[in-house]
């Protein structure tokens, strides 16, 4: 019996080529640029999320030295920080298609990536049911020396290489001096209200 | 009817098989005895001692994304109540600083990065989880900010007592998976390994609790 018939060799070559093809589509390429649509915007702009008809808008940002849940009891002390808290008040409108859950992060020019602060029940960012809109707050603890070009990034959790979008909201801190001023004039305390759902008009 | 040749062949074969039988049996017996001796003397693998440094508290350990300064340990005893049996926890206090110069990302202290090493051949005890910033579970430590005070808890027996406890600190490494196996060659924090062992003298604290 002949061991290496032309067909066997062809199948082998096919497998090698297939391996090469999968290397072209490593997650690195998928995650960073190629099939992500980046939606840029500023405070007050309603931005489209993943083409699902849902929108996200940042209505206001507040800087504070301590934060406290509005539902906190008398025994709960405000949560302090060595840095500064940034409370981002948002407004989402849900379209007919269910949007993926979002991973919000803050980025700054210095390279820092900030994750949402823990320990606050009311701090979150999500979408209501279809036909409704929701307003709420998400709180981040940030380093006051790295706040230039603070940007809110909303990225959906991707399991597959599907066409997806990322929202980037410029929080309006173009220079170090403005960042410093924001930190200096931060409110002594910020109360995090629970999110409110209403009918989308 | 067998031919003479076949009979002679059979005789020769018989002789050949039986000629070295005793030697073969001896060799097999020797192998069995040797393996039993190796097993009885503690296995083939060479026992290596601890390969990471052993420090005495207060000690600072740089471990991957974090820098931990272990300060003190407490054995917190909860006496028996009407509803609960007596229990005890070993709580280790430390300061943690995010020194993630690779990703500059906020991250939480992972309780799995700490092990209680009882010694005497007993298994290491995994922690019940870590908390920071006023005992908050999952507190995000921001890169670039000063250290936060944290603690990690281990469950121990209700009568546990020790003059010195050893806490193993693990560290993550910023590296990528093997890209020749088809994984992305982008590095990330993973692959825990031991960084150091810290010796602390625990104080006994009784937690009266609320009734």
UniProtKB/TrEMBL annotation, chain A:
The lineage's top-level taxon is Bacteria
What is this protein identified as? DUF4352 domain-containing protein
TrEMBL record, chain B:
Query: What are the transmembrane regions?
Result: 23-44
Keyword Membrane in annotation: yes
Q: Which UniProt keywords apply?
A: Membrane, Transmembrane, Transmembrane helix
What is the name attached to this protein's record? Answer: DUF4352 domain-containing protein
């Amino acid at each position: 019996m002949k061991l290496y018939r032309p067909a066997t060799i062809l199948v082998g070559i096919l497998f090698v080529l297939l391996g090469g093809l999968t290397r072209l589509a490593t997650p690195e390429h998928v995650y960073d640029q190629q099939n992500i649509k980046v939606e840029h915007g500023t405070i007050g702009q309603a931005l489209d999320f993943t083409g699902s008809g849902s929108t996200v808008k940042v209505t206001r940002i507040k800087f504070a030295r301590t934060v406290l849940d509005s539902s906190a009891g008398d025994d709960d002390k405000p949560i302090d920080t060595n840095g500064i808290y940034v409370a981002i008040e948002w407004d989402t409108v849900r379209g007919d298609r269910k949007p993926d859950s979002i991973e919000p992060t803050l980025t700054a020019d210095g390279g820092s990536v900030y994750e949402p602060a823990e320990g606050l029940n009311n701090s979150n960012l999500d979408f209501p049911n279809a036909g409704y809109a929701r307003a709420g707050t998400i709180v981040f603890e940030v380093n006051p020396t790295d706040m230039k070009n603070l940007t809110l990034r909303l990225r959906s959790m991707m399991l597959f290489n599907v066409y997806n979008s990322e929202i980037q909201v410029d929080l309006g801190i173009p220079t170090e001096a403005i960042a410093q001023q924001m930190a200096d004039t931060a409110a002594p305390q910020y109360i995090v209200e629970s999110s409110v759902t209403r009918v989308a008009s | 009817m067998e031919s003479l040749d076949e009979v002679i062949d059979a005789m020769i074969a018989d002789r050949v098989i039986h000629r070295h039988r005793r030697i073969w049996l001896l060799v097999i017996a020797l192998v069995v005895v040797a393996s039993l001796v190796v097993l009885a003397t503690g296995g083939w693998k060479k026992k290596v001692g601890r390969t990471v440094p052993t420090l005495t508290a207060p000690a600072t350990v740089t471990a991957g994304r974090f820098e931990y300064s272990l300060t003190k340990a407490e054995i917190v005893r909860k006496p028996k109540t009407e509803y609960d049996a007596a229990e005890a926890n070993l709580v280790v206090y430390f300061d943690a600083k995010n020194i993630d110069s690779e990703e500059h990302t906020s991250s939480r202290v992972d309780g799995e990065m700490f092990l209680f090493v009882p010694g005497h051949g007993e298994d290491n005890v995994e922690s019940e989880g870590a908390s920071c910033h006023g005992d908050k579970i999952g507190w995000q430590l921001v890169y670039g900010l000063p250290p936060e005070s944290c603690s990690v808890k281990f469950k121990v027996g209700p009568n546990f007592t020790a003059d010195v406890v050893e806490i193993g600190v693990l560290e993550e490494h910023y590296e990528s998976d093997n890209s020749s196996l088809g994984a992305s060659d982008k590095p990330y924090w993973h692959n825990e390994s031991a960084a150091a062992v810290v010796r602390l003298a625990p104080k006994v604290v009784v937690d009266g609790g609320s009734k």
